[in-house]
Each structure stands twice: as structure tokens, then as C-alpha cells.
Amino acid sequence: MSRKPSLPQSIVDRLVAAGFARAEPDVLQPAEPFLDVMGEELRQRIFLTADAAGRELCLRPDFTIPTALLHMRAAGQGGAASYFYEGPVFRHGANGGEAPQAGVEMFGRADALAAETEALSLALEASAALGVPAPLVRLGDRAIVEAAVDALDAPAAFRGRVRRALRRGGSVEELATPRPGETEHAGLFAALASAGPDAGRAVIEDLLSLAGIAAVGGRTAGEIAERFLERTAANSVALAPQAKRMLGALLAVDDLAPAALDTLRRIAEDAAPGVRATIARLGERLDAFRAKGLPVDAMRFSIRFGRGLDYYDGLIFELVDGARATTLAGGGRYDGLLTALGSPTRVTGVGFALWLGRFPEAGR
User: Which fold has domain 1-132+333-364?
Assistant: First the structure.
């Protein structure tokens, strides 16, 4: 009979010796932080209940958010600390909705490249200890696309639509195409556009209030107004040809990491300073990985690669068992997470999670 999958003791000893503290967040968690950060769509994938006061609770669907909350309570407004964890996470799906997970979170590290290098190095060490000594490494970097979108000469609402479209795998071409049904509301969109964002928002909120509508599908009147204004911007703004070419070229980058970096550097020659800076940062990151002895030449980088959790905002990586085409681990950078959870100061974050049940050595 196989035993419960667990993190090898050698890895636990390694983490403790490096100053990582064990985090043990409760299995039952407030649902609000997860829904606020990861979106209402998560509601369909998690196990929800309520306490006697009617507050929504859930079985923890991930460890990063509750560990971040533990860090905020322990460290206050500042301070750096690193944690590791092990235990089940719960989401609708395989394994009866329960899956064993272990991982690492590092908060407040000022040495960004060193922290990212340590995270990927630890993930590879743990993978080897669990029976996969040479997993495929997939890399991405949300910061590059974010910088490219920020550089667009377009209203903020339109840039928001671009971000969401790209995260769900949309094409640059579809961003210039009106959505089905929008043409029949062209007069309304034109009126809102001419009124300006503040006046347009006030008009929509007033109309919803007069109709007695406070929320629809979990969205407040203000959020509904923002979506109307976004559609207004989307219907009246088109990407300039140069911007479309640049975004299209970026989104096509998918190659071994060194070759992908060369391509990105060529694209950056005509890009905005923010895009050039993020691509230069990627070069520094690969240099740091190589100096640590990590297999950079075998890593694959894709701009389109992105993990499913919305709190990642920079480096993203996954370890894949190539023989079984199984994702074993994933992680990255999430510098905006603690702010989204209510921290008054920006706190850096980087970490990874291991899906213990997917490793061949996990149950032995």
C-alpha cells in the first residue's frame, strides 16, 4: 500500500537550514481574499460554506494567499521572511477534489534575481528528490506583455480589455473587431464616449440605481459601469498598425530561452522604454540562472505561457515531466499580491508549488 505523498525530509532539512519557517494555514479559510484576487470565476471551482454569521468560507484552494495573510499578520508593514508548507488543497476536479501540495513562498526579498533563482533552483532540487531529476522547464514573463500594453496609445479601459483578451489566449486581430451585438448599441457607446469617463460612469450608475439594480452576477453598480465604459472605449479605439505589429511579434515568441531572448531584443529595438527594460531584465534573469548552474539552454520561453492564477505579475515557470506530459510544479513572481490583500506597502513575493501526487516517488 502506498503512503501519503510527502515532501522528502532532505528537502525539509534544506529549507529549515536556509531559514524557511513552516507555514500551517487553516484548512478552512475566508473565501473573500481568494475571490477578490483570483476572480469570481473561482467560485465554480472551490468548496464553499458559511459560518453562523453568514460569512463565506472555503476549503483552501491554494497555499499562497493564506501564507501571504499569515506573513502580513506576523511581519506587519515590512520585513522579509520565507516559508514552506505541505498539505492538501481543495478544488473541484480529480482526486475527489483534494490534492497534496507542498511549496515555498518568499516575501519582502529586495534581491529579486537571487530570490527568483533560489525559487527555481529549490523547485528543481525537490523534483529530483521526488524522482524527476531533469524535468522540462517552461518560462514566461507577464511583465513584458504588461509593459507592451501599458505603452499603447489608448484609453485605460481599452488597455484593460487587451490584458484580459491576451490572458485568455486571444489574438491581436480580435482586439480591433467589435464584439457581437455591439453595433446595435453604437449610439449608446458614442454618447458615453463623448460624455467622458467620469460623466459616463455617473450616468450608468444613476440608471442602475433608478432601476433598483445594486448588483448583477456578483458585480456592483460601479463595476458594471466600468465594463460599459470599457466596451465604449473598445468600440471607438483601434490599435495603430505599428502597435499591432509589435504586439503580434511579441506574442509569437516561443523558443528555447536563449533564442527567445535574442528575438525579444530585436523586437525591443523599436519598442517603448518600458518594454526594453523588461526584456533587459529577462536577460539578467537568464544570466543569474546560468551562473547558478541551471539548465538555461534547455529551458523554453514563451510569451503566451501563463499560469492560471491572476496574481502572477512577472516571472512564471513550470516543471513538466516530459515522459508523461504532466505538470509537476509551478511558480513565479507576484509583487502585487500583498497589496491586493490589503497591505499598505508593496511587498515583493516569489514562490512555487509542487503537486506531490504527480511525482513517481511521491507515494513510495
Answer: BirA Bifunctional Protein; domain 2 (3.30.930)
